[in-house]
Amino acid sequence: MRRVQIQRTVADGLRVAVRASVYAVLGGAALVAIATVASVLGPLLALDLYTPPVAAWWTVFTAVAVQGVPFLLLGTVVSAAIGAFVPERAFRRLLPRNPALAVPVAGIAGAVLPGCECASVPVAGSLMRRGVAPASALAFLLSAPAINPVVLVATSIAFPGQPKMVVARLLASLGTAVVMGWLWARFGKEKWLRLPGRGAPSAHITGLRAFLDGLQHDFLHAGGFLVLGAAAAATFNIAVPRSVLDVFTASPWLAVPLLAVLAVVLCVCSEADAFVAASLSAFPPTARLAFMVVGPMVDLKLLALQAGTFGRSFAVRFASTTWVVALAASVLVGWWLL
C-alpha cells in the first residue's frame, strides 16, 4: 500500500511538472506573439492602411499594451504564489480584535497581494468564510489591487518624474478602502451580504498545482481586459473629437467625474491602468488620479464578480458607495498634492 502511494505521488509530481512546462511554453509563446504583433505586424498593417488616425491609434494601443504586459505578468505570478503557498489564516492572525483598528490594518495588508483586482474578490470571500469580519475583508478587497508594490512601481514608470502622483494614488486608494471598511462596520447589514460558500473541491487544491491554476486564470483573464482597455483607450483618444474633450478638460469639475465613469466602463487591470491614465494627457492630473483610484475598486467586471460572490443586493450598494468615496478621495488628495 505504501509503495502504491509513493508511485501515485511521483506520478502526480510528473504530471504537475509537465503541466508547468506546458504553461511556461504557452506563456512564452503568448509574450513572443504580443511582441511580434507590436513590433512587426503592427507597423506593416499601419503602412498598408496608413492614415494619421490609424498610425496614432496603433501608437497609443502598442504603448499601453506592451508597457502593461510585464507588470501584469509579474503581478499574476506573485498573486498566484501567495494564493497557493500562504495560508489564509495568516491574514486573520495579523488583524486586531478591535474592528476600528482591524479595518486600517487590513487595508495596509492589501499591499502584500500584488495581482489583478479579480483575484481580490475570491480572497476576500475566503477570509470571510474563515471568520474575518466583513468590514476588514472588504477593506482588504479594495486595497489589494490598488496599493500593492507592482501597481505603485508601474505608476512611477507611467508618470516619470512625478512622484507625487504615486503618493497621491497610494493615499487616495488606501483612504477609500479604510473609509469603506468603517462605513460597512457602522452601517452594513447582514441581510445585504451573502457569505460565500466553500466552493468546489478544486478550490482546495494547494501547492504547485494551485499556483499554476491561479497563474493561468489570472494572466489570461486579466490579459484580455488589458488588451481591450488598451484598444478602448486608443479609440477614445482618436475617435472623440477635440472639441468634445475641450468641454471636459477645461473644467476639473467635469473632467474628474468623466474619467471616474470611464474607469468603470474600460475595466483596465490595475497593473496597467496607469499607462492608460498617462495616455489621457489632455485631462488634468486630478482626473487621471480619479481614473486610477476608481478603476481597481469599481468597474463592470468587478460588479459582476461581487454580485456572483456576495449577492446582487450587496454589489449594487457597495459599488455605488465605493465610487462616490473614491471620487471624493481623489478630489481631496489631488487638490492637496497635485
From TrEMBL:
<feature type="transmembrane region" description="Helical">
    <location>
        <begin position="137"/>
        <end position="159"/>
    </location>
</feature>
<feature type="transmembrane region" description="Helical">
    <location>
        <begin position="314"/>
        <end position="337"/>
    </location>
</feature>
<dbReference type="InterPro" id="IPR005524">
    <property type="entry name" value="DUF318"/>
</dbReference>
<dbReference type="InterPro" id="IPR052923">
    <property type="entry name" value="UPF0718"/>
</dbReference>
<feature type="transmembrane region" description="Helical">
    <location>
        <begin position="289"/>
        <end position="308"/>
    </location>
</feature>
<feature type="transmembrane region" description="Helical">
    <location>
        <begin position="165"/>
        <end position="185"/>
    </location>
</feature>
<comment type="similarity">
    <text>Belongs to the UPF0718 family.</text>
</comment>
<feature type="transmembrane region" description="Helical">
    <location>
        <begin position="252"/>
        <end position="277"/>
    </location>
</feature>
<feature type="transmembrane region" description="Helical">
    <location>
        <begin position="219"/>
        <end position="240"/>
    </location>
</feature>
<feature type="transmembrane region" description="Helical">
    <location>
        <begin position="57"/>
        <end position="86"/>
    </location>
</feature>
<keyword id="KW-0812">Transmembrane</keyword>
<keyword id="KW-0472">Membrane</keyword>
<keyword id="KW-1003">Cell membrane</keyword>
<keyword id="KW-1133">Transmembrane helix</keyword>
<dbReference type="Pfam" id="PF03773">
    <property type="entry name" value="ArsP_1"/>
</dbReference>
<protein>
    <submittedName>
        <fullName>Uncharacterized membrane protein YraQ (UPF0718 family)</fullName>
    </submittedName>
</protein>
<feature type="transmembrane region" description="Helical">
    <location>
        <begin position="21"/>
        <end position="45"/>
    </location>
</feature>
